[in-house]
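User: For a reading group we're discussing how well predicted structures match intuition. Take ATP-binding cassette domain-containing protein. Before you show the prediction, I'll give you the sequence so everyone sees exactly what went in.
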Amino acid sequence: MLQVKNLSGGYSDVNILRNVSFSVSRGELFGILGPNGSGKSTLLKMISRVLSIKDGEILLDGCALQQYSSKKLARLLAVLPQVTSEVFPFTVKETVELGRYAHQRGLFQTWSPKDEAVVQEVMALTKIKEFQGASLQELSGGERQRAFLAQALAQEPDILLLDEPTNHLDLSHQKGLLDQLKSWARQRGLTVVTVFHDLNLASLYCDRLLILNEGEVICFGTPEEVLNETLIQQVYKTALENHPHPEVPKPNIVLIPDPEWGERLTLDESYLSRNNEGVTFHSPVPLKTIASAPKGSGLGWKEKFVICKSRLLIEKNENTVEMQAYSAEQLYTHYAAYHEEGFSILIILTADCRLHYFHTWLFINGHVSENTLIEALITVSEGKQTALKEKPRPNGWEDGIVVAATQKGENLTTGRLSSKLGQTILNGMLDCSEKLFNSIKSSLSN
Ligand code: ADP
Ligand code: MG
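Assistant: Thanks. Here is the predicted 3D structure of ATP-binding cassette domain-containing protein, as structure tokens, for the group to look at:
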């Protein structure tokens, strides 16, 4: 539907775009990304013939762009420009009606029932009917954006070019617009080429993406191919990571803020409190946590870790992990810290004498990836299995596990048994369990 071949050009003598090539198929939702000033708007202006081509060519539906009459071009292609603050003194409906210009015939252009029907339809689609009589000047940025989108749609184009269409929209209107564009692309074969500011919106909605940097194409392909952590870091010159979307298999790029200097924290037993009813560990900062527990399971940021005999699930706090203790028996806790070069760990074990439960908390004073957290969890679980091998346990026992890290200090890249962290966890688990069993034994024999 759209082919751009070795395109170069820009404003007067300065070439902003250099040797840009890509193509977009009919019905595709195609996203253009790039840092500020990389030439995205310039590219859209060249495709919509606002700027002329210096070198190379643009083909629309197989024909060179220059060969189209303005009216024919307007029936094929509509543009939603980057919204500026300058506004014309038209009403919303008048603005939308302007979109029909290319479809009107004859010397004395007449307004046909078809024109009216299209205008009504696109106003309904963009949800601006209720303020169709209002002047553009009275509208919010987002409402104005939707009025201009309706104008573009009133052209009934085959290709829609959009420049940062979601910029002035709140979350629900962003989703509404993109869902709508996607369904028009799928159902009506509309080809959508849109500039995006937000990498993650582009990742969620576009079939393919193109990245521009300093007027050149860096790469184009599916979101998975393009939104590569290293490449995006280089182009945007900033620290970020890809943490795939939790619900759909799409890349999701997150910013990593600079660390706050001067912050030091070592988790130790001073954050632990115990009584006959339970155990609480209250960290002064949220910890990157993986947990298996009745409340607060999974991956997340947690601050408070609780084991209690009664009143389970009273905490409404999202930051809490809660486990249950068997109320008929006394509760035993043993903790120990293990120090290595660059990091340390704190293990806290809680059980009753018959091992109805054997809860393990592992706190890591160090920085871990999600991967390390999961490997550490597996190592904890192996250590626990070894420690409990010979121990008879009542039926229906239930154990909780927490592995949580401060995310300050040394980068720990793995938690596997073969690593320093893995070894420290395993030895710590065996040592700490044995001490817990001993204290249970001596308390029972007293
Ligand atoms: P983007 O949309 O990616 O942020 P633009 O395509 O608007 O970037 O701009 C690319 C470059 O072209 C920038 O360096 C900008 O300063 C320059 N530029 C933009 N508009 C004009 C103009 N009307 N005249 C001259 N230079 C311009
Ligand atoms: Mg721009």
